[in-house]
């Protein structure tokens, strides 16, 4: 655990007032960039290799690469998230849209598997499945409390917007760390120790339904904060007979109370043709509840990415959902 007397001072430590106006957050394609990416997508699909084998070196994109380098810098060295806008999804079939998105994502990281069922590309929409310890939140329209995803980086491509609701909300993990360290330093050892998580049937039959070890909320690798948090699986350990202590609940309540402060939240509505990428170690995210209608259906496409060149290469949550696939190797 870092010295809590010295707050983290990095570009990814921000409040809502620190961020530029929404339009200034976006990197926008021009028409020539769209044509370049479309041609690359069509050629990649014709070649027949799966998306997760695609690499940045396969797609030099001379017209678009500088924009994507700046987007990657936002995620790795900047505020911890970026928006790439202006892809004309209505002009293309689903497979071309996803291929274009995967090519763009290859300049941010490498696509990794997302669940025990073996999906590399996940459609995020209301499939009318309840959000519980036996399912994943992307299959429902429910409110998703603040959490981090399994991989280093998450990507979301907007293919459709809900009639109402469905905002994505981001909070800086380093700002949360600084706030709790300043206001409730007594809770930091509990958050650094972490919690067992329910694995939500994302494991072979007969294996322990809980994580083998506690997963720290705040951990430091290479001197850099790595935040891993999802309260629902922490509480769902009760389905397996495990209970949280009063001190555990107090720490979780305090953590969530900080996340709930409006001044810490960046609220985004991912429009058609926009791609949001965020670093799961430095940004927590939430989704507000939403409703579709006959003309409007919220539909995002999610990719999980790992960046082997990142300075943040600590342990994440990927092994919780897809055992043995994380690139993290503990030292010693």
Secondary-structure topology with pairs:
Elements: H1 22-25, E1 26-28, H2 31-47, H3 65-76, E2 81-85, H4 94-105, E3 110-112, E4 122-124, E5 144-147, E6 153-160, E7 164-165, E8 168-172, H5 173-183, H6 188-193, E9 218-221, E10 224-227, H7 231-235, H8 246-259, E11 265-268, E12 275-279, E13 283-287, E14 290-291, E15 299-306, H9 318-321
Parallel strand pairs: 1-2
Antiparallel strand pairs: 2-12, 3-15, 4-15, 5-13, 6-12, 6-15, 7-14, 8-11, 8-13, 9-10
In short:
The chain is an alpha+beta fold and 332 residues long. Helix content is 26%, strand content 20%.
Structural description of this entry:
This protein has 332 residues and is α+β, with helices and mostly antiparallel strands. The protein has one domain: 4-Layer Sandwich (Double-stranded beta-helix). It is 26% helix and 20% strand. It has nine helices and 15 strands. Strands 1, 2, 3, 4, 6, 12 and 15 form a seven-stranded mixed beta sheet that branches. A hairpin with a 2-residue loop joins strand 9 (218-221) and strand 10 (224-227). The radius of gyration is 19 Å and the shape is globular.
Tags for this model:
332 residues; alpha+beta; Double-stranded beta-helix; seven-stranded mixed beta sheet; four-stranded antiparallel beta sheet; 9 helices; 15 strands; globular
Element-by-element helix/strand order: HEHHEHEEEEEEHHEEHHEEEEEH
Poorly predicted spans: none
CATH architecture: 4-Layer Sandwich
Look at the structure and name the CATH superfamily. Answer: Clavaminate synthase-like
Give me the secondary-structure category: alpha+beta
Helix share, percent: 25-40%
Radius of gyration: 19 Å
Work out the number of β strands.
15
Number of domains: 1
**Beta-strand percentage range:** 15-25%
Average pLDDT metric:
91
State the end-to-end distance.
Answer: 18 Å
Helix count from the secondary structure assignment: 9
The general outline is globular
CATH class: Alpha Beta
Q: Sheet with the most strands?
A: 7 strands, mixed
The CATH topology is what?
Answer: Double-stranded beta-helix
């Amino acid at each position: 655990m870092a010295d809590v007397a010295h707050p983290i001072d990095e570009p990814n430590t921000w409040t809502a007032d620190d961020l530029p106006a929404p339009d200034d957050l976006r990197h926008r394609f021009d028409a020539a960039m769209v044509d370049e990416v479309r041609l690359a997508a069509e050629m990649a699909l014709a070649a027949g290799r799966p998306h997760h084998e695609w690499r940045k070196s396969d797609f030099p994109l001379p017209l678009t690469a500088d924009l994507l380098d700046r987007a990657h810098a936002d995620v790795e060295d900047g505020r911890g998230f970026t928006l790439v806008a202006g892809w004309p999804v209505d002009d293309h079939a689903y497979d071309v849209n996803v291929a274009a998105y995967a090519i763009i994502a290859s300049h941010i990281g490498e696509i990794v598997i997302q669940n025990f069922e073996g999906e590399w590309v996940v459609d995020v929409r209301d499939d009318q499945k309840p959000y519980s310890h036996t399912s994943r939140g992307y299959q429902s329209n429910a409110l998703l409390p603040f959490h981090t995803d399994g991989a280093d980086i998450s990507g979301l491509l907007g293919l459709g917007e809900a009639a109402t609701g469905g905002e994505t909300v981001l909070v800086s993990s380093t700002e949360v760390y600084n706030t709790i360290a300043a206001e409730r330093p007594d809770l930091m050892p509990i958050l650094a120790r972490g919690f067992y998580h329910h694995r939500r049937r994302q494991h072979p039959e007969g294996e322990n339904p809980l994580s083998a070890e506690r997963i720290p909320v705040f951990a430091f690798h290479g001197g850099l904060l790595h935040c891993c948090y999802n309260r629902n699986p922490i509480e769902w350990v009760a389905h397996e007979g495990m209970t949280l202590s009063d001190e555990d609940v107090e720490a979780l309540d305090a953590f969530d109370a900080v996340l709930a402060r409006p001044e810490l939240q960046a609220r985004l509505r991912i429009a058609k043709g926009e791609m949001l990428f965020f670093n799961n170690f430095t940004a927590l995210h939430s989704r507000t509840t939403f409703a579709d209608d006959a003309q409007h259906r919220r539909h995002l496409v999610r990719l999980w990415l790992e960046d082997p060149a990142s300075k943040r290469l600590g342990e994440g949550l990927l092994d919780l959902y897809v055992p043995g696939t994380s690139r993290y190797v503990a030292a010693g």
